[in-house]
Design brief:
The strands form six sheets. This protein has a six-stranded mixed beta sheet, with helices on both faces. The protein has a six-stranded antiparallel β-barrel with strand order 7-8-14-11-10-15. Strands 20, 21, 22, 23, 24 and 25 form a six-stranded antiparallel beta sheet that branches. The chain contains 14 helices and 30 strands. Helix 7 (309-322) crosses helix 8. The protein has five domains: 3-181, P-loop containing nucleotide triphosphate hydrolases (Rossmann fold, 3-Layer(aba) Sandwich); 194-278, Translation factors (Elongation Factor Tu (Ef-tu), domain 3, Beta Barrel), CATH 2.40.30; 297-367, Alpha-Beta Plaits (2-Layer Sandwich); 375-480, 2-Layer Sandwich (Alpha-Beta Plaits), CATH 3.30.70.240; 485-597, Elongation factor 4, C-terminal domain (Alpha-Beta Plaits). Strand 17 (327-333) and strand 18 form a beta hairpin. The chain has 599 residues and is of the alpha+beta class.
Length: 599
Amino acid sequence: MATELTRNFSIIAHIDHGKTTMSDRLLQATKQVSVRVLQAQHLDSMDLERERGITIKAHPVTMHYTAKDGKTYKLNLLDTPGHVDFTYEVSRSLAACEGAVLIVDAAQGVEAQTVANLHLANQQKLTIVPVINKIDLPATNLPMVYKQMEDILQIPHEEAIPASAKNGIGITEILEAIVQRIPPPSGENYPHMRASVFDSVFDSYRGVIMYVRVFSGILKRGTAIRMMATQGNYEIKEVGVFAPAKTVIDHLGPGDVGYVVANMKESKEVKIGDTMTERSNPAIEALPGFKEIQPMVFAGIYPVSTEDFEQLKAAMGKLQINDSAFRYMAESSVALGFGFRCGFLGLLHMEIVQERLRREFNMDVISTYPGVVYELTLTDGEELTVDNPTFLPPVPNIAEIREPIVKSFILIPNDFIGDVMSLVMDKRGQVTNTETLDGTRIMLTCTLPLNEILVDFNDKLKSITRGYGSMDYEQAGYTASDLVKMDINIHGESVDAFSVIVHRSKAEQRGRILCEKLKDVIPPQMFQVPIQAAIGGKIIARENIRAFRKDVTAKCYGGDISRKRKLLEKQKEGKKKMKSIGKVNIPQEAFIKVLKTGD
């Protein structure tokens, strides 16, 4: 099919504004999937995606549509995730497109990630087709949405198409707008073959399957190719398109989106965002716009049973091919044995990886408390990065610790501004700007330390605003902060699994919480055992694990009280001796309970 009849587009929106349902309707309208086969969230192939009602992986699909002008167009759709953790999926997919359908909820209006995703699309210079979805809802407020689109997004409301993906309203108008407004692919006159890898999956029978967008040249079976970032040489074994199932075809030409199977056997052989070119006539420069994905959150993941270490290592290798943002390296802990230090984009990403390890690879794992990457300047001028509290140098050697901060955009109803500002202050954040969006909502621009918003910030925001608040964030560099390493000592010995880097002002509160939890989960010992939270040599919180109480005076019937005292003194001496030489065995269940609670 001629390149001028091809359209490549993405669907972008805030979470739960109907992206995947819209793609279902487009599949139905173009008769790409028969009604008998079509199911809700058709492109969400993972069980996890269906259960949570979210899209985790980008899903490409090729459709054919006969427009009102009588021509048949090839439409390549990339359904993208909406959650802030998966922004990298969105940016990769957008780089393979010329246009984007931007969906706004007719009842909720413009949300934080609507703005963030529009910025991503504008950076790629994409043509925007705005759609107002869910117009069939009783709470629909079109005048409000039109005003928000013009004020916040700077999009004329006349361009917006009213639609309902659930009831199939406005679908034909959307297809016509895609055909008329989005330009065809360009760049096919470039003298060398170039294709961009925007995603990949691992198949246990065929190895690595790369999802590609061809910019120039032809990809077909037998072509010798070179990957420009890794300089690896391969031969193409199969090319095809997504219809939406993988369908083998003869070749992929300029502007096409499809998949390539080459003789790649290992996950590390492909880099997402790499440029594929011909080995015999290679391109001089790679395609622009891709950057290496850097994890923002780190945690230790350990097998519950130490015998499963090799199995966990193999599972992580396979997971990494499906998920280019996931990083891992081996580490060991005195308390938990051998495991891995893993890097994630955010907390949801971490949760998804753990869940996939359990489901797809049958692994039983526990994770340590999530932390971020800190930058250190030592007294001798050396620069370090630390993602694990265990590797933090001694305090006298550190000149400065810098923590990552994020610029956050929080959209909330006017009534909750005081409570949300208190939450931001509590998390050591600053509100740098407040902007009134309309009569009912306001946008706060804040700077916050990343490690403060990791675990419960979003939950608290939703709770305070009764579900109406939404947030999006982007990295904003590093700032110097008064951070300390807090250790948990049990019977005078430090337990590395519970060590955390925390701000000095929050250390005491955090230490008390951890000590109380450990007191509840570690069983009584033969002698009283102290649990202490310490910063260096200073104890900031303490709890005691009680001792077993054996009644040594049970056999004394009446008589002189001195006999009982003698037996109790003897018991006290025994416990004292035991305390000086005894060791506390902390059961694995105690680690699991404390580390799984997340606080």
